[in-house]
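The following block was generated as part of the benchmark described in Methods. Ligand: P-hydroxybenzoic acid.
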Amino acid sequence: MRTQVAIVGAGPSGLLLSQLLHVHGIDSIVLERRSRAYVLARVRAGVLEQGTADIVRRAGAATRMDAEGIVHGGVGISCGDRRIRIDLAGHTGRTVLVYGQTELTRDLVEKREALGGKLIFEADVVAIEHVEAGEPSLTFRHGGIERRVVCDFVAGCDGFHGISRNCIPPHVLQVHERIYPFGWLGLLSDTPPVSEELIYVNHERGFALASMRSRARSRYYVQCSLDERVEDWSDERFWAELKTRLPADAAARLETGPSLEKSIAPLRSVVTEPMRHGRLFLAGDAAHIVPPTGAKGLNLAASDVHYLAEAFVGFYGRGDEAALDGYSARCLSRIWKAERFSWWMTSLLHRFPDQTSFDRGVQLAELDYLAQSRHAQAAFAENYVGLPI
Ligand code: RFL
Ligand code: PHB
């Protein structure tokens, strides 16, 4: 098989890149290790920045997102009796869109398939070769057979546990990492959300988040310790813990029901650089991880692939390699700012096991400052809606 851009992974990065390249007449093949059903069932992020939604529109995959996504002009933060509303629209003129990653993934898979795109599931890429010189190639296993794709470029969109990052030699690759001493236990249920807007909660028992997927489907999270297992959390235990942590008015409105999905995600911050090595380009979780507190993971994946698609368009359309050369630096400038914001929001809202009374005092002072300062709220809003792409 031969293609212009071989894409490893059919998460949002790989699918969106493939669709953006298609719009510009550039051929790609997407190879995905998991089955189609598995990829379509995965529950992850829920908030799209306006810039991400615009990229999805440019990719021609926005019909359902625009019909079903819910525009949010504000977001709530709660701590004790204090409730802060950040007026995103008022401070920035921009909003965010609540539309699940699960739905976006479905839209992109269906779009690629409807357009006859080459999207191969259960295709495990086991080797990536010749990215430094000559013609790059990928080897993948599919249905018990080993096959090869030869290409001009490889896009490593294979997430944090993929193989493409490891193709960058250790003396070239720098990894910057912070692991947080807790995780998020998430629950999805067909119950109406407790609030019109998301509520991030700093509670003495730990962080909580009230989010949603639609007016009839809620997504809730509670901070948990890393040694906890999801089996130890019955739905009843989850609902009781959530109710304790939510502000009183929201707790009073909480409707419970059976969980559709329940899982624990660890929290970490990772940045790897450079994001390019020869003819291999990393995008999305393959290159960086953010804790979910600022809802930035999926949005960074979208800005990476937007920059990468532009760079390929420059190369194939005008023979211009400047954007390919500048790809890593352009991405990292935006990534580090989102990393900073996600780390800051995580530090502001969680209970840390080793937190001293001094640390707690600083946290409360920071929340107090956010509640009282229009400037602090504007800075929050600017980052939450997403810095310019
Ligand atoms: P993905 O979505 O991980 O997709 C990578 C794909 O590559 C495939 N793959 C391979 N395919 C072929 N051959 C190989 N050798 C392969 N190795 C891996 C994988 O099967 C997979 O399908 O990365 P992508 O596309 O960069 O997208 C990034 C986003 O998915 C991610 O940033 C967010 O979902 C992060 N994230 C969250 N972000 C939020 O903003 N809010 C959230 O609530 C939120 N929850 C989450 C999350 C990420 C999670 N992960 C990665 C464990 C919850 C979880 C559990
Ligand atoms: C979600 O709805 O899954 C969600 C929303 C906001 C976040 C993280 C996750 O910051």
